[in-house]
Amino acid sequence: GGMTLGQAIMVQFLSALGAGMALVAWYPKLCGYLLFPVALVLVSVTATIGAAAIMDVAVRTNAGTFSELCDSLPRWMRFFAEVGTAAWFLCCLSMYIELISSAINSQ
User: Fold this and answer.
1) How far is Cα 4 from Cα 100, in angstroms, rounded to an integer?
2) Report field, pTM of the whole predicted structure over 0.70
3) In this structure, is the dihedral angle defined by the CA atoms of residues 17, 19, 21 and 25, taken in order, positive or negative?
4) What does the pLDDT average to over 72-92?
5) Sign, CA torsion 74/51/12/95
6) Number of neighbouring beta carbons within 10 Å of residue 81
7) Which H or E run contains 54?
8) Are 9 and 51 in contact (CB under 8 A)?
9) Do 8 and 54 form a contact (C-beta atoms < 8 A)?
């Protein structure tokens, strides 16, 4: 069993929306408090467009799982997509752990 299409769409949406949440503490410092809502809307729109793109391709290819969705990709591209995704999530995890660790240690 691979990942279902619904799971793939949710993973993409949540990773696009939530991957930057470790940086949320720095967003106001970077763009100011007035542009902070704009930054969050931009991240949300990007996540929605990415999820809609996966859903559209799935409907066009009649894919039932994420693996079926990637079948048309060359073998090497599938490998790098999997490794790249895992590396991205590990980087996001490390940034989140660093943020929590810094917050706890500064108290």
Assistant:
1) 32
2) no
3) negative
4) 78
5) positive
6) 12
7) helix 36-61
8) yes
9) yes
